Amino acid sequence: KESAPSLPSASIAEEGDASPNRTMMLFPQLPAMFPSPSENVGEQLPAGQFWLDAGSMAYTMPMEMYVMPDASMHQYPMQMEVPHMRQHRVHNLPVSHKASASSSTAHHQPASEVIPPPDAECERALERLNSQDASVVPATMDWVIEQAWPLANSATGCRVVQKALDLATREQGTQLAEQMKGRVREASTSPHANHVLQKCVELLPPERLQFILDEMLGDAVSTARHRFGCRVLERLIEKCPSSQTEPLLDEVLTGASQLCRHTFGNFVVQHVLAHGSPVQRHLVADMLHADIQRLARHRVASHVVRAALVHCPDDDRMRLVEAMRSNAGELADLAHHHCGSFVVRQMRREMRR
Asked: DSSP per residue over 209-249, as a string?
């Protein structure tokens, strides 16, 4: 066995980039064509044969393909990602298959990939924004406004945008927020950009935030169920008047019975109870009252029931209390339930008020 020759550094995958959860598929027809994994990793294959490996960067060579003993894969001069595939030895793949595979891969690539500035550049921008020398801040602020969307899509870059929002004038803050226009749904579900969107909501006046609510319409329930999107909705409910959020929250409440049981959606429903209008709180109370015994025992929904006992108008609170007290046996069982017991404690506190 011969070791693989060294390849140009530009064609080698970044260290630590291999992952089984890749986003593109190279040669998607091959797992069915060649279901048996090969065991001869490390051997030099003759021309027309090559290796595929799950979660690795693949590199093709014009004449021969080498597989490194560590099962990493090298393709020269062009790299493509290969997910969810074990190692397969492929013999004499026809050129037509190669061409169709390449077009399949191109189909899965995003239309416009956002490339954030390097972390080192972001760190320098943070230093300038934190600098005691006020003369360097305006130029840095202009750069951040111009690069706000790419910056918002990286862990370091989103910190730069948030810091700029903290320092921005009303006009600069509006300019930064407007970089999110047309991208609100994408930003609200991004692990980094969602923080920028939340900061915009916290710092800008409600009238400057209307575009965020408008772009979320039609997708409010799925946003409420999202790990990051629910946070943006919560900030909007906290900051904006109920008259402004009414169309969005009306849409959220159409899915309230499912959201109150959902790991993330329940927090949005609790925010509606805490900050919504009396009408919106009443709608949530009606939904809870219809199935109070089961919801009071639910691991997630029981938190919503407790929030309703705190925030709903008096008549709605008493309706919920009476529904839980109407059957002595059910109430005793609820008091001993590992989730329902907390609801009963809250109910008793409300009765003593």
From this structure: GHHHHHHHTT-HHHHHTSTTHHHHHHHHHHHS-HHHHHHHH
- CB contact at 8 A, 300 and 266: yes
Q: What is the pTM of this model?
A: 0.67
What beta strand segments (E) does the chain contain? Answer: 44-45, 49-52, 56-59, 65-66, 79-82, 88-91
d(Cα 33, Cα 88) in Å, to the nearest integer?
A: 10
Tens of pLDDT, residues 265-285: 999 999 999 999 999 999 999
Dihedral pair phi/psi, residue 103, rounded to 5° = -70, -35
User: Burial letters for 135-163: b for 16+ Cβ neighbours within 10 Å, e otherwise?
Assistant: eeeeebbebbbebbbebbbbebbbbbbbb
Measure the CA–CA gap between 214 and 244, rounded to whole angstroms: 10
Q: How far apart are the first and last CA of the chain?
A: 82
Q: Find where tokens 């001869």 sit.
A: 40
Q: Which helix (H) or strand (E) holds 322?
A: helix 314-325
Using DSSP's 3-state secondary structure scheme, residue 14 falls into coil
122-138 pLDDT, tens digit each:
999 999 999 988 889 99
Determine how many CB atoms are found less than 10 A away from the CB of residue 116.
20
List, in sequence order, every residue forming a beta bridge with 49; answer none if it has no partner: 91
Quote the CA–CA distance of 306 and 346 in Å, as a whole number. 6
Distance in angstroms (rounded) separating the CA atoms of residues 212 and 90 = 50
φ and ψ at 17, to 5 degrees? Answer: -80, -20
H/E stretch holding 131 reads: none
Q: Helix/strand/coil (H, E, C) string of 239-286?
A: HCCHHHHHHHHHHHHCCHHHHCCCCCHHHHHHHHHHHCCHHHHHHHHH
Paired sense of beta strands 88-91 and 65-66, if any: unpaired
| Residue at 96: amino acid letter | S
Rounded-to-integer distance, Cα 349 and Cα 353, Å: 7
Residues 6 or more apart whose CB falls under 8 angstroms from that of 230 comprise: 223, 224, 264, 265, 267, 268
Torsion angle defined by CA atoms of residues 95, 99, 105 and 108, in that order, rounded to the nearest 10 degrees? -150
Which candidate, 272, 250, 270, places its Cα nearest to that of 262? 270
